[in-house]
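not sure who needs this but someone in the group chat was asking about DNA mismatch repair protein MutL from Christiangramia oceanisediminis so here u go. i didnt clean anything up, its just raw.
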Amino acid sequence: MSNIIQLLPDHVANQIAAGEVVQRPASVIKELLENSIDAKASRIQVVIKDAGKTLIQIVDDGQGMGLTDARMCFERHATSKIKLADDLFSLKTKGFRGEALASIAAIAHVELKTKTEEDEVGTCIKIEGSEVVSQDPCVTPKGTSICVKNLFYNIPARRNFLKSDNVETRHIIDEFQRVALAHPDISFSLIHNGSELFQLPPTNFRQRITNILGGKTNEKLVPVEEDTEIVKISGFVGKPEFAKKSRGEQFFFVNNRFIKSPYLNHAVVASFDGLLKEKSYPTYFLYLEVDPKSIDINIHPTKTEIKFDDEHALYAILKSAIKHSLGQFNVAPVLDFERDSELDTPYEFKNKDASAPQVEVDRNFNPFQNEYPKQSYSGGTTQSFRREKPAQWESLYSGMQQETETDVDIKQIEFESEEVTGNLFGSKEEGPEKSTFQLQKKFIVSTLKSGILVIDQHRAHTRILYEELLKNITVSAAVSQQLLFPLRLQFNNHEIEMLKDLKESLEQTGFIFAEIARGEVEITGIPTMISESEVQILLEQLLADFEKDVPDNGFSQTDLLAKSLANSMAVRSGTLLNTVEQQHIVNKLFACKEPGLSPFNKTVFTTVSVDELDKKFA
């Protein structure tokens, strides 16, 4: 029997390794950025075209490589960080596997230009599908420049697996932000299709967060500091009132490496217990420094998951540190019997000198005299005046007896109306018959000839609004209500770009944008179906939905926009509706094209026939 097990060729093995390391263009950028940081670069520039599918270029001013190193770096498991197996347990660098460049070169066209400070000329190497095409000396500045072109050109199935350019760009920006937040002392820039998305100068942690997420982020942050033998914690958490509807702004960094940890995230959420609204998520940027020997970062190919030796202690320390910070900065209530917050010195009086109070005493005052002279001091002269007795004080109460004895017609007294105002659909008159009623503030129950109709009020209202919004967007027939004072809302740079793409569709739903500038949006008109206080929440939820799945064509964008707005604007479960509002939903629902399903393909209503009820009582 012939042997059936054989070794894979190197180029096949590299392609298999690439499947673990390189999932999308963002994975390439992450690996190359980590290599630039390990090379001690102080300035890193990222240039991409077509969301990285056509070009990814990383340029740094790090140490660079010589001729031999430039050729060796593309070999599998070639690394300068590990020499012994024990080195895996004391890692202080980013890329250590030696798989990144070999994997990238197996599935793309790669051009490397690098030069050390000692060399007079640099080295240029071109590789296509793991094969070295050329290796020549070149003129290049100190540092390294890597161009990755035509990603997955030799694996069409993987290339077809990639999402739209908007989605892939979102992933690239996420990876870029994670690396930039972990290293505020390094200058970063990101250019996409010729336009500059980020230009981040070297600064501190707080300023780097503000530069990435917008200028108004600074006032939302609460500093967290804790230093123990197990872990040193630093960073910031967001104030509870600025919690978002999505999990986007949540960052953990362990030894300057971004990680994902549901366990530690639970500790953060637990520390905000009682401070967050329902379905809101806290913002945090937490930097943890631990002993490299106490963690294992080699359990996942992307190195975003870490195994801690003592997770329980880390959980308790992190939770208590955040709670302490929230209480220390008066964000959360604290219980302290030895401290009275009324005695705290205001910040503006912190450095002011105390002034002795001056008391002026009128020594001629005698409370037992009916008349007494009182002196007034003005301009160095003394004036005396006397308090006059009130003359005929009994006349002040004249007429009171007559008014008391006057008969009052109680029927003419008008009491304040207890009628509920501010109805959902504007009508205040109820019909002559109450053919519907509300069950558990969630379902609308109506009678039919054949039985009972039960409607989910939120799903029904979502279907109604969805079809109205689709009609408004396509026909451009939406009505806006002008705001007396324009709304100014803060968003980060990426959210601003998304709003620019959605501006035309949003205007067809009733929004009026006066200006969409860097970090700020000014709104002068909103749809008549929403209130002014709901605009911020509605737009945040809309952007969160689009971040999850940004569609390619205009129809899909319109559909997703209508779904997101309808879901946010629809009446919620737990809202009390009067009879007119209940009947309005029922009538509008059965005027829809698809009354039986919500926009998310969920059942809107169900019926219970008389026969089914009879069986219940059989």
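also The domain at 10-200 is CATH 3.30.565.10 (Heat Shock Protein 90). if thats useful
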